[in-house]
Write a structure and sequence with these properties.
Blueprint lengths: L4 E2 L15 E6 L9 H10 L6 E3 L6 E3 L58 E6 L15 H10 L24 H6 L1 E4 L16 H5 L26
Parallel strand pairs: 1-4, 2-5, 2-6, 3-5
Antiparallel strand pairs: 3-4
Length: 235
């Protein structure tokens, strides 16, 4: 990626399998005011969870770890840069009113490597320095244009087939549809099939791609003509 710092991961996820291109946004569970993109990248490499990019949206620093033509290793891991053996430890970034063991504890490693890492002719994994409970789109997005220009140059469609990612407390109600995943485009990690991931939280996707999201799968829009009708889910 032009202009990005480089830190080659010791291992990537291997060759890509082909299919629709995808970009997946994740949160690493770190304070962007204290942790640099390079520090996050170094930690992901230590954990064997190298993504394609790490990005600090406050400083604008971007670091590339894996070639876009190879699979990353971050999908299937958690949003915590702590070691997997710290399961059950206090979450230092638990957020206001949150205490006790982190809900992400014990998900720190990416072993065995989730198969979704290599699905698609591109499967770009963007690890954002931030927290799932505090969506990073609520603050500055310095450097976003460089990321989007890079993705555009590789033909990444600016669409969100699964709609906005679910809020942190509702991550398990989010859509992890194989059908929508097959369509390609942008996804939150909480929308990736076969992965138990909470982030990136309820981000404002229009701030990232500038496109309006489609309605969520299985949701009917309200009736027109002033006839209020409750939203219902398909059975």
């Amino acid at each position: 990626m032009p202009g990005a710092g480089q830190l080659r991961g010791a291992a990537d996820g291997g060759p890509l399998q082909g299919g629709a291109p995808r970009a997946v946004w994740q949160a690493v569970g770190a304070d962007p005011g204290e942790v640099s993109a390079r520090s996050a990248a170094e930690r992901l490499c230590e954990l064997g969870r190298a993504s394609h990019l790490t990005w600090n949206p406050r400083s604008g620093e971007i670091v590339q770890l894996v070639s876009i033509l190879r699979a990353g290793r971050s999908l299937g891991g958690g949003e915590c840069l702590a070691s997997p053996d710290r399961a059950g430890a206090q979450d230092p970034g638990a957020g206001p009113g949150r205490s006790g063991a982190s809900p992400l504890a014990g998900r720190g490693g990416a072993s065995p490597l989730a198969g979704v890492n290599s699905e698609g002719r591109l499967c770009v994994q963007i690890c954002v320095v931030g927290f799932a409970w505090d969506p990073f789109t609520g603050g500055p997005l310095t450097g976003l244009r460089h990321i989007m220009d890079w993705l555009d140059s590789w033909g990444m469609p600016r669409r969100w087939p699964a709609g906005p990612p679910a809020a942190f407390d509702c991550e398990y109600t989010g859509c992890r549809s194989r059908r929508l995943w097959a369509a390609g485009g942008h996804f939150g990690a909480s929308q990736v099939p076969d992965c138990a991931t909470a982030g990136p939280g309820e981000i404002e996707i229009e701030r990232l791609t500038g496109r309006t999201a489609p309605r969520r799968e299985g949701i009917r829009p309200p009736a027109r003509g002033g006839q209020a009708r409750a939203l219902t889910r398909a059975g």
